[in-house]
Design a protein that fits this description.
hypothetical protein mp506/mpn330, domain 1; globular
Length: 148
């Protein structure tokens, strides 16, 4: 009986430990690279990703401010003691919601996603957990595949 209880407790402990969020190792140059990211001119033509530049130049400072706010959010998360992927994913969600009041064309939406991917690379985040797909397409194709 004691052995059975011990086994059950061990399984519970292993299960709860595996469900806990793993802390991330933030690259040592992340803060500096986030600052450099904020200084870059944004929403300009970029032939490497076939981006023609922003359709309405009046939107450039507005969109730049919003994406730089996301970089600020990421910088705050990097300063936490135990940072998890979920912490950054929550900031991605918040950052993308900042664009909800603006009618964006497809190229500008894609460019915003590329900027978020750049932020993810800076901090070593592997996945947006479908948030970028949902922003771009209105749903996450990966999650749609899993339901099939």
């Amino acid at each position: 009986m004691k052995q059975t209880i011990g086994t059950i407790l061990g399984l519970i402990l292993m299960t709860s430990t595996s469900c806990a969020q793993q802390t991330m190792d933030i690259p040592p140059n992340a803060t500096n690279n986030l600052k450099k990211f904020k200084l870059k001119e944004k929403f300009v033509e970029d032939s490497t990703i076939f981006y023609p530049g922003i359709g309405d130049p009046k939107l450039r400072p507005i969109l730049t401010q919003k994406i730089n706010a996301a970089a600020d959010d990421f910088e705050k998360v990097t300063k936490k003691d135990k940072t998890t992927a979920k912490d950054f994913q929550q900031k991605i969600k918040t950052g993308l919601e900042r664009f909800s009041d603006i009618n964006l064309d497809t190229e500008d939406r894609e460019r915003i996603c590329f900027y978020f991917e750049e932020l993810m690379d800076i901090v070593g985040l592997q996945s947006s957990d479908g948030l970028l797909n949902t922003f771009m397409y209105g749903f996450d194709p990966e999650k749609a595949k899993q339901k099939e």
